[in-house]
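Hi everyone, sorry if this is the wrong subforum. Our group has a chain we'd like a structural model of before ordering constructs, and none of us has done structure prediction before. Sequence below.
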Amino acid sequence: MTPQATREAAHPADWIGREATMQDRIGATPVRALAATLDRDDPEPRDGDPLAPLWHWLFFLPHERQSALGDDGHARRGGFLPPVALPRRMWAGGRLEFLRPLRIGDDATRVSRIADVSSKTGRSGTLVFVRVVHEICDQDGLALRETHDIVYRDAARPEATPSPAEALRASVDEQFTRTIVPDPVLLFRYSALTFNGHRIHYDRSYVRDVEGYPGLVVHGPLIATLLADLLRRERPDFRLQSFTYKAVRPLFDTAPFAICGRIDAGDRTARLWARDADGRLAMQAEAVRAA
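Answer:
Right subforum, don't worry. Here is the predicted structure as tokens:
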């Protein structure tokens, strides 16, 4: 899409097919910092070491100027992402295909494309879904393909708040689990590592008074990263072919939550999920082991 076509686009669907390319080096410093944030006792990262699954989210970060940010701390709509006129933006889920590992010290290129924009109206109001496909290549070609689903929502309405009885209950048949305390320091460190200015993760008055949430929101990608990290802790030999995740309900800094996992009898698939303090399902994921 040419710059002129971008200026003339008036509807979010006009953004379908739009592409953006970023280049980055898979450096050791953010890897070292995320290991500390996840409370891992890893050896010092060295050039040539494989990058852990989902840690590519430390790279290819947006760098909008301060004057280009909206009131919520995100970049204003209408750049690469379409100008959706809804106030709440969240990670809905995604799927990752690992062709081979990215490695520390390598230069890499990410090509992103808007694959689809759709909308629907439901009990919670208007929803707009944006699907983005990212392909990351290094000097040897394509290494990672990611499909990322973003959802935009209306502002919170009291009548749209689901009752506890309507919430999905999380499984309790896990083989391994870990308790996460999502304190503001953890959320701040992950926001800093991913250069995420969204105020729902650190501004308590904003998240309560504007977004209508009871506390600071735990990042969707942080939850997904914690699920993949749980599997890596329990089964470091379980090399991923794919990882699919879906956000079900938000988690907040108001209470600890559990990340859980179970590996099927064939040792080929791992089921992973996040469970809030009330036993409700917050995120579910499936990891498929490479042959």
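For your construct planning: The helical segments are 3-8, 28-37, 184-193, 204-209, 220-234. Confidence is low (pLDDT under 50) at residues 1-9.
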